[in-house]
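Look over this today:
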Amino acid sequence: MGVIDLGVVTPYEPSEPGRPRLRLIAAVLAVLSLMALTGSAPPRSHALSTLWTIPVNGNEDSFTLTPDGVYVLSSLGARRITAYEPRTGRIRWTRLRPDDTSWIGVVDSGVLVAPAIDDDTTQNIAIDTGTGRQLWRRPGDAVAISAGRVLLTVGDAEGPSIRRLDVVDLHTGTVVWSHPADRRRTWVATGGEHPDRIAVVTADGQVTVHDFGTGRVLAARQLPLAAGTQHPDEPSGIGVAGHSLVLPGPDGDLSTVRLFDLTTLRERWQVSSPSLSGFYECGPVLCLNDANGLTGYDADTGRVLWRRPGDGYAASLGRDRLVIETGSEGARRVLADARTGRELTDLGTGSLGYGYDSDGPFYALFLTRDPPGRTAVGELDEHTGAIELRGALDPSADYCQSAGDLLACITGGGRLTVTAVGPSRYAA
């Protein structure tokens, strides 16, 4: 296992008793939770360069960083969305938003998609990232974007299932195809960042798999659903992992997860546990959490690849790496090989952050105490686990996003600060 020497790492300090457990696995990597470390001052570095900074209103504002722009929803003064050039901070456009838009959504292919509330109904607006012009506005929740299409699900006011799904053109909002629920409780599942299939599952067990772009039915079959899937007040847990449809549910004293091939809808394999607390896709494998710890399964065959004791959850990093929580209340993290479970690096109480590009580069961030109030930034080599210290942010960062060699962080004093990290040492 590799050893990290950042110049700021000292022995682990247990977290405070009673600290709430963070169960949201997506937040492990998407939100850069910066834990405290002690130690000597990091060496002076000339790699980090502050490019520009603007005031923000703490948690009331949101932003998204891409290689082509920084998009900020601001509540300082008149509520507005502003697009900035990423390296200069020059304002590209500003759009006043009287709607109840609470956060910046997804930026894809030159279009920003953001949610808004209109008379208690969820809407989505699409904005041209080059000009700020509104392209379209439609009801529904934006679930996925793929190949110039957006999947919108229109919810059922009486529960967590949907009433209708619409797939619309990303740039025009024109409906490409639609699927009604026909008054049956219906759930929709997709997988991956840019899915090519949509699984539609009804409470009576009718499953259809559609081509994402055209709506063409690729497979259809009646499947027995567990009674727990039909609970009126809870989400189903139905999902897509890789090339499989995942159908969870109780089985006597056990919790069973069954996986079906998305092409044929025939069962591939199943796994049961009396204490299952999580089953999810983690990179190229599937992960299960229960009282025995964390187990990695081959996604195609269900063969057990590795087991780890403890209650740590895992999140994917790059193509074949995992960040796994360990220690009391997930206070420490390790980098591991997804296919073998082998630890590559002990990350201590630091966090890994990546943003726009899931292939990296990846940055490790650690809050320092000596000198206090800084965030040490290092670039991680996902293959070996080595970390090269690039410098420190002063003041410290509460939350960061990355795109290439840029970091955009909410820093002390209520500022959004964009920093250039410098050329990647580990880029392919």
Summary: The helical segments are 26-30. The CA atoms of residues 48 and 421 lie 5 Å apart. The mean pLDDT is 82.
